[in-house]
Amino acid sequence: MFTKKSLITLPQYLLPHHLLSTMMSKLTHCENTVWKNLFIKQIIKYYKVNMNESVTADINSFKSFNDFFTRELKPGVRTVIDELNAIACPADGAISQAGIIKAGQIFQAKGKSYSAFDLLGGDDERAKPFMDGSFTTIYLSPKDYHRLHMPLNGTLKEMVHIPGRLFSVNKTTTESVTGLFARNERVVALFETEAGPMALVLVGAIFVSSIETVWHGVVTPPTISKVRTWKYDQNAPTLKIGEEMGRFNMGSTIIVLFGKNKTEWINTLVADKTVELGEKIGSILINA
Question: Above 80 in pLDDT, residue 9?
Answer without folding.
Answer: no
